[in-house]
Amino acid sequence: MNHAIILISCPDHRGITAAVTGFVYAHNGNIIHADQHIDNQSNTFFMRIEWALEGFDIPESEIKSAFAPIAERFNMVWNLYFDRGKKNIAVFVSRPLHCLQDILLRHGQGEISGTLRLIISNHEDARPLAERAGIPFYFLPITSENKADQETQELKLLADADINLIVLARYHQILSQNFVEKYPNRIINIHHSFLPAFQGRNPYEQAFRQGVKIIGATSHFVVEELDAGPIIEQDTVRVSHRDTIADFKRKGRDLEKTVLSRSLRWALENKILSYENKTVIFD
Amino acid sequence: MNHAIILISCPDHRGITAAVTGFVYAHNGNIIHADQHIDNQSNTFFMRIEWALEGFDIPESEIKSAFAPIAERFNMVWNLYFDRGKKNIAVFVSRPLHCLQDILLRHGQGEISGTLRLIISNHEDARPLAERAGIPFYFLPITSENKADQETQELKLLADADINLIVLARYHQILSQNFVEKYPNRIINIHHSFLPAFQGRNPYEQAFRQGVKIIGATSHFVVEELDAGPIIEQDTVRVSHRDTIADFKRKGRDLEKTVLSRSLRWALENKILSYENKTVIFD
Amino acid sequence: MNHAIILISCPDHRGITAAVTGFVYAHNGNIIHADQHIDNQSNTFFMRIEWALEGFDIPESEIKSAFAPIAERFNMVWNLYFDRGKKNIAVFVSRPLHCLQDILLRHGQGEISGTLRLIISNHEDARPLAERAGIPFYFLPITSENKADQETQELKLLADADINLIVLARYHQILSQNFVEKYPNRIINIHHSFLPAFQGRNPYEQAFRQGVKIIGATSHFVVEELDAGPIIEQDTVRVSHRDTIADFKRKGRDLEKTVLSRSLRWALENKILSYENKTVIFD
Amino acid sequence: MNHAIILISCPDHRGITAAVTGFVYAHNGNIIHADQHIDNQSNTFFMRIEWALEGFDIPESEIKSAFAPIAERFNMVWNLYFDRGKKNIAVFVSRPLHCLQDILLRHGQGEISGTLRLIISNHEDARPLAERAGIPFYFLPITSENKADQETQELKLLADADINLIVLARYHQILSQNFVEKYPNRIINIHHSFLPAFQGRNPYEQAFRQGVKIIGATSHFVVEELDAGPIIEQDTVRVSHRDTIADFKRKGRDLEKTVLSRSLRWALENKILSYENKTVIFD
Lengths: 283, 283, 283, 283
Prior knowledge:
With 283 residues, chain A is α/β, with parallel strands linked by helices. Chain A has helices at residues 16-26, 60-73, 98-108, 127-133, 147-160, 177-182, 203-210, 245-268, and strands at residues 3-11, 30-39, 44-52, 77-82, 88-93, 115-121, 137-139, 165-168, 187-191, 214-221, 231-238, 272-275, 278-281. The first copy, chain A, folds into 2 domains: 3-82, Alpha-Beta Plaits, CATH 3.30.70.260; 88-281, Formyl transferase, N-terminal domain (Rossmann fold). The radius of gyration of chain A is 20 Å and the shape is globular. Chains in contact: A-B, A-C, A-D, B-C, B-D, C-D.
């Protein structure tokens, strides 16, 4: 049974909720979820509404135009989505494979509803995993000389596969501004620290030197500035003086996997709204 | 600025959200929060809607009757509340005073919005705290002989002070069925274990003997059966073989305080909906 | 570089630590870890000492007899172990495969130091995983009629493979008293609840009906009584009214994996001491 | 019953543990706790040993000189302490009083074993709390002009009261280098962020603007550089887009209290060893 989902942000006004829910009801839709949030600082209204299309009297192809007048009336920035399962996912990965393995396992267990269309890496390490899972694998090594060319190649692969969501599952190359701008709020990165602490390279080593008692992992949408995009999810785990850097990495791998997988699930279910440099998670 | 809040549960149908939000909008109310939840197992719809009354064109005293037709149409069990600050609270406490101290501190810091009207205890220990805070204190010791009489006395005190919410802040007497039935979903107890494990007496000692690696605290609405009412909130903390029973109690006190204070805040803000033997928390 | 490890429990007396560390030093051993714990309730002393054998002047084969007089003097229950890597592991699994997959992944990443010698299941589901990993797989379905025979077969497989540690990675058969007694404190089970709450079958369904706000997982040594052996590790995760039983299971899988893998690592590193119905974890 | 505690750090060598525990045993001491840790990166050995003095055949006043030869042999940096209860504590506080209130409550409940000798503040707000608790209160407002003079006054008060431990319980003045150097590893500060993120002023506001999903609190020893001393303890709590800055502060207060109180307890029990810019916590 197909569902429709609309994500909305707009200046707060009286009547938005009534108008949106009234629209669904007037056309015989059954609301499954309706969440809203008002950011009082910026006076911004956010909403996620999901309804069952069974019995809904507007055809899927015409919902967008039918809803447009309401959106205009309230100056909405909005998107309409159908069904959870339709997103096409590309995974970028470098040498640490635990996040990719975790995504593959969860995909196999039905936790992740999208379609894994391709895996891109600047190393060959992930190839056997990709082949065993039957997912096309592209080895595109990056040097300072070939970076622009390889990105052109990557963008073509993404376009050809109709990719909606890119997951950087420990991909250790910085994407160019040009690349990032093509997929706004569609590229999720996992960073192995509790951002904004320990940006950049070797965050576990940084954390170890600092003598912190807790380490973290952070998923965020990718923007041009490194490790600075809107945070989607974070989690932490306790460490002690007994933990070596190897222990930090071992504990951190578990964090990275869970933080990335939660973000991926929310993205696939259209539960993330990004605004300014933050996210609203309708979970 | 006053707010109105309606808490609703009813069988799920198309159009409930539209009807409720449409009602608020039609009378020029500004929705501040609107949360809903559908329990698929029982096909039950739950909703909490909060709107600002500034500009609302129905007087407070007539909102109840104005909303009644919508409630009837959908077979709603519902309640209308005004403003966060108006609840009158009674605290019952025995000898451990940390939960009461915590409530008094949070009240002093403005975290807890109700009015502490009276403190009842079967011991004298809490009297100095009550007097310093300027809250009437009643010493009502309980024996098997006088229990019925003392409860009669307590019920009179509660009625005279127009109490809406009773907090058992480590009160170690069992309330009678008669008492409990007078305040359905209005008596919050803190139990010092992760329920349903370790019901009844000495839960920390039980947990210690069991050798658990994590202890917990649970707040719940009081029903006639001991430690069996709908759970409102729980939290846990790690223990190890190095922790003695005294350490369990020390760590547990912090848990009890935070778990109870969260529940109290939710109750005062009308964010808890109880159904079957569970709660929905609209936070 | 090989290490020796001694785990000790005995009645507390003056001089135990001095005697044990003095023994290692007198024979030119370099202590890597020395942890001790005194249980004041039972006046029991526990110790784990690990030292590097490089330069130690007693051959490995004679350490046991050399230490025996100290052990006798203090009435120690004790065990000597060498090296982390030598334990032979058997995994028992039924149909949910996530714990087995997790063990295989961690083994591949070097997190788990033992040797996976064989996988036994009462279903065929795990066979492809076992074969891909190159680990012998035995399909031994259990009925009330054949249970004794199948256990005989299992015990023979375990003996032939010189198994030191058995991991029940969601194995849904109850082992007989005879079986359990052959591997005291050597069989680790993962139970998908926060024990002692929700013992037995369908703990997530039990937790869901109870309306708990936190779910857990527990690893323990197997004793004859179901889900009642000494607890090794527990962990918890928050749930809300929005979580379905499927969400409980999804969140729970992550808990089960981390709780079981921690226990397995501790067991392989000889960090667990079991006494009465509890454990001391020297981590 | 009095205990002696020695905290040790020195280059790692064979025989340290045997020498230290042998010393205690040779003089008929009963070891209560013995913990050690080796930092492999710097090859440094750390130890905390605590033994009961009942029956110990060296008088308290001579233990220091009796142990000195062992300390010299291994190039130890070391300290000898007696009994938990003897430390004299000074609390510095500015306007937010929750940490001071928490310390007073825990002190009243016997959780904190030292003696609260004096409270110093640059505001008058804390005076009623201090007076009610019967603790001398000194109002020493700080301006850029009088800072040096006021610190001279503070140092005199601390010296006169024989203070061993200074707790900055949300004290919003920066101590001078001269002041800090007089109490190395004896001044504990609570910072209301997950350091090293959000140093300096208004960390909750910084965290809110950053859109983090988890906030934290950090206790550390004070060094000259602001918010940069060795971290003693940290803890974190989840926030969401629904939380306002006021919610961050409310949740943060609970974190600050627990993090600071744990650190204070460890300091009073001589469980913290500071080295380089880190701490070892023997808990």
